[in-house]
Structures are given as structure tokens and as C-alpha cells.
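Internal tracking record. Fields below are filled automatically when a chain is submitted to the structure queue. Please do not edit lines marked as system-generated. If the sequence contains nonstandard residues, flag them in the REMARKS field before resubmitting.
Queue: standard
Priority: normal
Entity type: single polypeptide chain
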Amino acid sequence: MHRLREIHKEATPSIKALHWGNITLFCISAILASMMAACGTTLPPVSSENTAAPVTQVTPTETVTPTQSPEPSPSLTPTTMPSLTATLEKITAICSPLQGIELKDLHSITSQAFKAPSPFMDDGHPAVDLAFFTFEGLTSMLGHPVQAILPGKVVMVVDDRFPYGHMILIETPMEMLPDGILPPGVLPTPIPAENIALFDPCAQNPLFENSPPIQMDVQHRSVYSLYSHLKDKPPFEVGDMVTCGQTVGSVGITGNSVAEHLHLEIRIGPSATQFNTFGTYQPDVTTEERYNYCIWSTSGRFQAIDPARLWEDQS
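SYSTEM-GENERATED OUTPUT FOLLOWS
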């Protein structure tokens, strides 16, 4: 009996050792399974009732976000306006302002000659008046066709406003005039801008203090030909092109006129000027009409020249 008790005591450590060995093996297996799972593999099942189920590593799927291409920014394309000089005919000569009457004969039907106005004043006679009662078989001047003396663009058409009555204003850029077509000394010396700023009566008139400025290109100069006292409103629109010698109206008695005649007024001034309308000296004239007339006649920006100088060598 004593011997059996000793054998039991000797066997007990062996059983305990076996028990702890199984536990150690299980732990090592679990650790290895975790490590291999991290690498995307699995361990074969361990034959033990306490072995954990195999773990499968799931690789996450990459989410691709579509790249949105930026919309192209709208670009501004500069618009090239057609040049006035590109649309005018080549100028080779001055045309007669009256159909069928040659330049050399105009001096004989001049009823009032040019008289230069004083600076910044609406005086003198900044034009020539052409009139006749009879001329080489013509029995009346009323309704006689009026022609453009230069090609150009229509910049204003006035429907019977005082003092010009029915009239048309045509612009011809200076750069279109060939050398020698204007006689020497006919072009006036431009009035300095500082002088205009000091003496311009339009700027000093309180009536015009709220008047919008008139658009004009002060970097370039043009010849402006004004034909007035016409019988009817000229059948043109602003922007129309006319050729040298083209009929632009007919002689009348409208505006500040007591007998039929053509008032031909020529001034040199800033290019591309937009007057819209003229008028003065009457109670029904608008502030805009007065202001535009002031800029044309007395501001110093538009200088009158003697039209008869253009045909003096034809006499």
C-alpha cells in the first residue's frame, strides 16, 4: 500500500507535464496562425478541440476616384472692327459738290465766301455758299443734285433743325488723302489741348455740365464735309459709305436760309466723332443739340477751312 502511494506520487508530475505541454503547443499554434494570417495564408487545422477556427485575411479593395478634367476657361477673342480706310475708294481728286458744274466754275456761283471764325467763337462764315438764279441753261438751283466732294462715311443726318436745316455730315480720314490733293497751308495748326481746356466755352457753360461726353478719337484727324439747307432729309443712315461725286441730296431753303443755296462747310477734327444731331438758336432745341453744336462750332476741336481752297487751282 505504501508502495502504490509512492508510485502515484511519481506519476503525478508526468501527468502535469503532459498537461502543460498541450497548453504550450496550443498557444504556439495560435501565435503562428495569427502571423501567417497577416501574410494572407492560413494554417491547417490543429487537431485539438480547443483549436480556433482558421482565419482568412481579406485584402481591402482600392477605391478609384475618377479624375474630373477641368472645363476649359472661355477665352476672349478680340473683335477687329473694320477700318474706315479699308472700305473707302482710293482718292485721286476732289469732286464737284454740284452735279454738272465743274470745279473751275464754282467761283462764279459763290454767293458768300468763307470768313474764318474767331477762336472759340461762333462768328464769321465758316463755309462757302453756292447759289445761282440761272447758270448755263439751268433756270433754277432749287432741287439741283448735291454731290460728295470726297468719299467717306456718313456720321450724321439731320432732319430740318436750325440752323442747318436738312443736312448730312461725311467723314474722310486724313490718312486717306494723297499728298498734294490739298493745297499748301490749307490745314490749320491744331489748337493745343491745354488751350482748349482753358477756353472751351462748352465746358464753361453750366447748361452743359451734365451733358455726356461725345465719343471721338483724338489721336487721329479727319476731314468733315457738311452739306446743309438741303431740300429734303438725305436718304442715308449713319455708317453708310459714299463715293466721290455720289449724290447725297438736293439744294433747298431749309434751316437758316432765305433763298435756295448750298452751304458747304469743311472742318478738320478728331476722327470717329459721334455727334448724333445738331441744333441751336431756337427755343425747341434740346440741350443735347445745343451741346453738340457747341463742340462742333466753338470748342476749338473742329477747325474750319476754306472749301474754295480745294478748287482754287481749277479756276
